[in-house]
Amino acid sequence: SQLSYARYGKDNVRLYKVQREANGVQHVTEMTVCTLLEGDIETSYTEADNSVVVATDTQKQTIYILAKQNPITPPELFASILGEHFVTTYKHIHAAHVKIIVHRWTRMEVDGKPHPHSFMRDGVETRVVEAVAREGQGISIKSAIKGLLVLKSTGSAFYGFHRDEFTRLPETWDRILSTEVEAGWEWKTFSGLQQVKSEVPKFDKAWEDARKITLETFAKEESPSVQNTMYKMSEQILAAAPDVEAVSYSLPNKHYFEIDLSWYKGLKNTGKDAEVYAPQSDPNGLIQCTVTRK
Ligand SMILES: O=c1[nH]c(=O)c2nn[nH]c2[nH]1
């Protein structure tokens, strides 16, 4: 047997950082980090040679130290700082995978104005970055929105789909559409940390644009299908972010079933009379796409 691939590191490294302004306003960021290293490490697997192992605890300590010494936002920048650190510090490490999940702490509005140091977790939504720093090959970065739950009570249809003897689903011109957004955008490859640093403003802008486009298209579109709506979202994100090469969506279709109550005194609760529905935890549709430039 032979070792065909290997990488190792520390997962679920949680960190929080506060930025204190002179005027009393404070900013907080909380994230969960994973680093995984590749390189000339096979003998640690095949020959119990630990001399090549940059311990996972060392990787964890490095995350904390670099978080103290550097900005940790945007996450694309901090992921690049971490990745570049590992491939330049250790000559036998040739690639570093860095995943950062940023959790929401949204500044509270109190007495009609932003509170200087109070925040709330308004949803399980996260901002996610996966970067790979590969020696001599630059830094590849994928950004994403995950866990953004949205629902519309109408403005969604699904009809005209293929029908045969296996088809039971009735056509509908008015349905609930509920999904948990996973939207990702893949950047052009950056030559290295310096180029990432020179383009830092693009990362927050792309995230803000992607989130706004997703929410507004979801709400405004008379959706003929999940497929068509996610394609329109993807096209708009590509148009808004010239340095993004591909946009991907993965959207579960979380079904709400009508409940026929006509057995009870003829109570009407289906079709145009439907008001009480049964939300389904499973099964769910799952619609995925990747959209690139022509
Ligand atoms: O938007 C939808 N796309 C589909 O492919 C599908 N299949 N069942 N319901 C559906 N809704």
The count of strands amounts to: 12
SSE order in H/E notation? EEHHHEEEEEEHHHEEEE
Terminus-to-terminus distance: 44 Å
- Name the bound molecules: 8-azaxanthine
Strand content: 35-45%
Major beta sheet, strand line-up: 1-2-3-6-7-8-9-12
- In helices, the fraction of residues equals 25-40%
Mean pLDDT: 98
Oligomer: single chain
Low-confidence spans: pLDDT under 50, at least 5 residues? none
| Class per helix and strand makeup | alpha+beta
CA-based gyration radius: 24 Å
Question: Could you describe the 3D structure shown?
Answer:
With 294 residues, this protein is α+β, with helices and mostly antiparallel strands. It is built from 6 helices and 12 strands. The strands form 3 sheets. It has an 8-stranded antiparallel beta sheet with strand order 1-2-3-6-7-8-9-12. Bound molecules: 8-azaxanthine. 8-azaxanthine binds next to α6 and β12.
Could you outline the blueprint of secondary structure elements for this entry?
Layout (H helix, E strand, L loop, with lengths): L7 E13 L5 E14 L2 H5 L9 H14 L5 H15 L3 E11 L2 E5 L2 E8 L5 E9 L3 E15 L24 E11 L5 H6 L2 H20 L5 H15 L3 E10 L2 E3 L18 E3 L5 E8 L2
Antiparallel strand pairs: 1-2, 2-3, 3-6, 4-5, 6-7, 7-8, 8-9, 9-12, 10-11
Helix pairs in contact: 5-6
The site of 8-azaxanthine has 8 residues, from helix 6 and strand 12.
